């Protein structure tokens, strides 16, 4: 039951991060075709990439959830412009740091060692200042999108 809930939670987050519900049809007069990530800023895609990697690592014992999040992270690489050489190690380090299992404070304020809070730790990482600093440091054009760059180069996504 717990594994099913984890898969549902991961699926909900991934569906929020990478919406694909509105794929254009053949008769669509849309401005673009392709993944929504291509239209999100490089800063947002970098943050989403870190979150997807955090979820993949947090749920590595749940093969389906980990593979799903890992595939999403791999897809986001295509829509994110950042200094991969310099950012790779800090990205892994910040994820490992976020997932250190030092217990959870329950509602009564007591430290509970046996409660797993990996998902909330990944969300805290996503919204935290450490990740914001990584975006500032490694994403060269945080407000640009892959679609902006493709338009500048000619027809594309």
Automatic annotation (TrEMBL):
<dbReference type="InterPro" id="IPR038314">
    <property type="entry name" value="T6SS_sf"/>
</dbReference>
<dbReference type="InterPro" id="IPR032032">
    <property type="entry name" value="Tai4"/>
</dbReference>
<dbReference type="Pfam" id="PF16695">
    <property type="entry name" value="Tai4"/>
</dbReference>
<protein>
    <submittedName>
        <fullName>Uncharacterized protein</fullName>
    </submittedName>
</protein>
């Amino acid at each position: 039951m717990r594994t099913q809930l984890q898969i549902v939670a991961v699926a909900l987050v991934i569906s929020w991060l990478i919406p694909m519900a509105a794929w254009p049809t053949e008769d669509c007069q849309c401005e673009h075709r392709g993944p929504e990530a291509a239209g999100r800023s490089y800063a947002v895609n970098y943050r989403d990439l870190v979150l997807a990697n955090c979820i993949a690592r947090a749920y590595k014992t749940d093969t389906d959830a980990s593979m799903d999040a890992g595939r999403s992270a791999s897809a986001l690489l295509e829509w994110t412009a950042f200094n991969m050489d310099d950012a790779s190690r800090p990205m892994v380090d910040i994820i490992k740091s976020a997932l250190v299992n030092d217990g959870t404070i329950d509602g009564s304020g007591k430290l509970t060692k046996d409660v797993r809070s990996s998902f909330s730790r990944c969300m805290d990482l996503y919204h935290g200042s450490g990740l914001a600093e990584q975006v500032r440091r490694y994403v060269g054009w945080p407000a640009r999108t892959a679609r902006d760059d493709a338009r500048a180069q000619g027809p594309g996504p």
